[in-house]
Design a protein that fits this description.
This protein is α+β, with helices and mostly antiparallel strands. Helix content is about 40%, strand content about 20%. The strands form five sheets. It has a six-stranded antiparallel β-sheet, with helices on one face. Strands 14-13-16-17 form a four-stranded antiparallel β-sheet, with no helix packed on it. Helix 3 runs antiparallel to helix 9 and helix 10 packs antiparallel against helix 11. Its EC number is 2.7.11.1. This is non-specific serine/threonine protein kinase. Keywords: ATP-binding, Kinase, Membrane, Nucleotide-binding, Serine/threonine-protein kinase, Transferase, Transmembrane, Transmembrane helix.
């Protein structure tokens, strides 16, 4: 691995380098702090050949485009400068995990968490399109998710505005293969509907843990994309209900005209499904988002519990008819029958005030989760709690200070990510 261009503590303009964040095809990214204002930022510096005119212009093009964008789900560009002849972009530092890192840690995200992140992305892309810009390179590594579950777009390296000069030859493919639409592979051209395709691929990956067109060779990936051939996501994750699968399918139509006509139209469907999911979580009898087999399982559990109750009641009456004086035995049997009917597995599926699963995580590696000095598990750790419940936990990780966290469980927030301190 080649050494970093900038070292810890070095100075870039008014900024002091705090650490190395990552390396991409065009440059390196560092965390830095303004020496007078104290603001923490991300600095992206071009590390490729400075004599490459196309790379230089693409880097400047990214800065020009991102400087026009002011949106809650897009990292803000603060400044553009040159250091020793190398151009630098000074931008907002987003404290969180890239979507690539999040999926690697969690595998399949829950439907509610994936929809929350996806809603943020679609809002950002709808705004980008309103500004006359096509992103052209949406991928998990260009997206960060903060501790509140909000997503932010970080990179506009090959985005193209309506008035931006073309930086690639006609027919030349730019972008990350796994997320390119068929028309990008075939002609090198992209429009807003190409971004819709990429959004569908991202949602698929969040829900299944893998890209829809993943294969062992580039040729196979391109073939699958050109045929829009992918395994139905519900085969990989049964929690994906038909309407959600239909949304993904419409994004991933081979014919661009068959996809959502705009990100705004897609956002309307995302919002609708989000409302239905919230109603489902609140116990609305009108909502039917879960797969049919989940309903069958619920009725099976209820049937088993009811059958157990009947058998135990019969035994209780049989015992009482022969041992009238042994009321304690009958009382005990009734108690067992009652507890069988109130089994947590059954009650959790039919109650109206239902607990939901939340995820406890940390930004730095993994941590052990304790409650009342009892080890619960290791992050990312799933915990069941009621909305409004106050949760107090202790987090311990080697090389970091122990951290005590306390928060109130929200109905809409499903992931609680904390930063450990050395």
């Amino acid at each position: 691995m080649r050494p970093c261009l900038l070292q810890l503590g070095s100075i870039v303009g008014d900024y002091r380098i705090l650490g190395f964040l990552g390396r991409g095809g065009m440059g390196e990214v560092y965390r830095a702090q303004h020496m007078k204002l104290g603001r923490v930022v991300a600095i992206k510096i071009l590390t490729g050949a400075l004599q490459d005119a196309t790379a230089l212009e693409r880097f400047r093009n990214e800065a020009r485009i991102q400087s026009r964008l002011q949106h809650a789900n897009i990292a803000t560009l603060y400044d553009f400068m040159e250091v020793d002849g190398r151009p630098c972009i000074i931008m907002e530092y987003v404290d969180g995990l890239t979507l690539t890192e999040l999926i690697a840690r969690r595998g399949q995200l829950s439907v509610s968490e994936a929809l929350d992140i996806f809603r943020s992305l679609v809002k950002a892309i709808a705004y980008v399109h309103e500004c006359g810009i096509v992103h052209r390179d949406l991928k998990p590594n260009n997206i960060k998710v903060d501790s509140k579950g909000e997503a932010k777009l970080l990179d506009f390296g090959i985005a193209r505005a309506e008035l931006t000069p073309r930086l690639t030859a006609s027919g030349h493919i730019v972008g990350t293969i796994e997320y390119l639409a068929p028309e990008q592979l075939q002609t090198g051209c992209a429009d807003q509907r190409s971004d819709i395709w990429a959004l569908g691929a991202l949602l698929y990956e969040m829900l299944t843990g893998r890209a829809p067109f993943a294969a062992s060779t580039i040729g196979e990936i391109c073939d699958r994309i050109n045929r829009a051939a992918y395994e139905p996501p519900s085969h990989l994750n049964p929690a994906i209900f038909p309407e959600l699968e239909g949304l993904i399918a419409r994004c991933l139509k081979r014919d661009p005209s068959a996809r959502y006509r705009s990100a705004d139209e897609l956002l309307a469907d995302v919002e609708r499904l989000g409302r239905q999911l919230e109603q489902r979580a609140a116990g609305s009898p009108r909502d039917r988002l879960e797969p049919a087999k989940m309903h069958r399982r619920q009725w099976a559990l209820i049937g088993v519990a009811a059958g157990t109750l009947i058998v135990l009641i019969i035994l209780a009456f049989w015992a009482s008819s022969y041992n009238e004086g042994q009321s304690g035995s009958v009382s005990l049997t009734r108690s067992v029958a009652q507890s069988a009917f109130l089994s947590p597995k059954v009650d959790s599926t039919i109650g109206t005030a239902r607990p939901h699963t939340i995820i406890i995580d940390v930004f730095e590696g993994h941590a052990q989760v304790y409650r009342d000095n009892q080890l619960l598990g290791t992050t990312p750790y799933e915990l069941t709690a009621l909305p409004g419940q106050v949760v107090r936990l202790n987090l311990k990780s080697e090389g970091f200070k122990d951290k005590t966290v306390e928060f109130t469980v929200s109905e809409t927030r499903h992931v609680y990510t904390f930063r450990m301190e050395r």
